[in-house]
Amino acid sequence: MTTKNLLIALIGGKLPKGELKQEMFDFYNSMVGKSKYFPKEENPRTACGSCIQRVKTTIWKWYHSDEKAPTYKGLVFTGKLGVHNIPIYTFQDASKEK
Known about the structure:
alpha+beta; 3 helices; globular
């Protein structure tokens, strides 16, 4: 899964489950040491909702705030912050617009 596809899949307030949760943790752990937003590895087998939410929040904060993070067309910041100051994004597929 590409980083863009992961971010699109993480849009919304629900906690990721199954394969998406594993992809999210794999991405997070691959970024440890590459950005200040990823200080230590996280256990992907956790059932702790707070831990899962922390990983998801960290990925969005990295995408939103890290100057070295990529930017993707279609991912649009709503101007709002959610719980734990998670930046809220939407996806607008330009290929489907008329």
